[in-house]
Structures are given as C-alpha cells and as structure tokens.
Amino acid sequence: YWPAAASTGYRHGLGGGPGLIQRVGPDGSFATVIAEIGGAPLNSPNDICFDDHGGFYFTDPKWAPRREDLSLDMGVLSPGSVCYGAPSGEAVRIDTEILFPNGLSVTDNGSSLIVDETGTGRIFRFPILDPGCLGEPELYADLGPDATPDGMCFDQDERLYVAGHGSNSVYVVAAGGGVVEEVISFEDAEITNVCFGGPDYCVLFVTQAVHGRVVSVNRRVPGMYLFPDRTAR
Question: Measured between alpha carbons, how far is 19 from 60 in angstroms, rounded to an integer?
Fold first, then answer.
C-alpha cells in the first residue's frame, strides 16, 4: 500500500504482492534473494544495512490496520522482525519483539545494531555478538510518539541522523545515544530516509515522500562511510 501523493501521481497503491528481498545488478537485472524464512513468507521488508562480513540486516514489520481515512492506526501494531541474511544465502529472524521495526544501521566499529521502533518513537541498540547473533536490546534514544522514526545513518562523530516520518524533521541524536542534539526541519512532512554522500561526504541527502523528491543539506561533519568503504579513510 502507498497513499496518494505527488510522488505517486495522486494514485493509491493497493499493494498485495509478496514481501521480497531482491538484488539489482549493475545492468538492471534483478533476482530474489529472500522470500521466506523457515518456511514463513516475509511480511513487508522495510530497510536494510550491511555488515563487514558480507551479510546484511533487515527489518520486516507488520503493517497496522487502516482507519476509515486510510491512515495507519499505529495504536494497533503487532511486533515485527529484525532479520539477518548471511553470505551463504541462509536467513534468520533474530528479534521478533519490536513494534514496527523500521530503519536500522550498524555502528562504525561493527559492535552494535541500531534499530528504530516506529510504533513508539524509541530507538534500540543491540550488541552484535557474532554475525546475525544479537544480545539483549537497550534503549538508545526516545524521540517521542510523534517522531515516527524511519531511515537513519551515522556521521563520523557517531551522531545518528533519524528521519521522522510525518514530523517534518530529521533528528540528530548525540554520540552514544540519549540526547537529541539538533532537529533539522523541512517543509515536507513525510521525511522517509537519509544518507550521506558527495565528494567530501558532507552532503546529507533526504527523501521526502509527499512531494516525491530528494533534497540535500550541507553538514560540517562528514557521514560514516558505508561497508566496506569505511576502510578507505
């Protein structure tokens, strides 16, 4: 499902297709990598990030029911899954307790996985014990129920940038979590994802769903290099 907006030509999308993880090649070809885990189909894979062992973590939330106006009833959420796809092709569900797991990112030293819980506005840190094996989660930051955290990324000072879907905002969480140091505001309410790029990696790219556009913001501190490019620093 997707709502009618400028980015969709003001047409609703009804969805209904299977949840899949697919790989797109440089030539535009694509192949399905994961369609099910343990015989159970995926729900609606949402976000993905890679580790430096050749595997990747992804979130697989369960969507909330719709109200009469087609908005999501976030008060009636079921827990979704945090999953891991190994280089061998095997996939496992490694946490099934987060209410609408959404954006996620591996920390620069590879020791932790950060996952946001869109249903509550909380962000959790999981210790990575081994590739695809997580320890008990702890609260990393609480942005509040109106923040609706979505995609995320780190800068090289270990601050976490979190897209606030429906909040007009990107939240900048202090290194180590706990405190929101800065809120970057936008005209578009539906801020869905963020990433760093540009020649010096100091450009923050922000996706905006209502208007269907990508905007950029210059930052003083460059972004964290993505695996495996972090070794180039």
Answer: 9
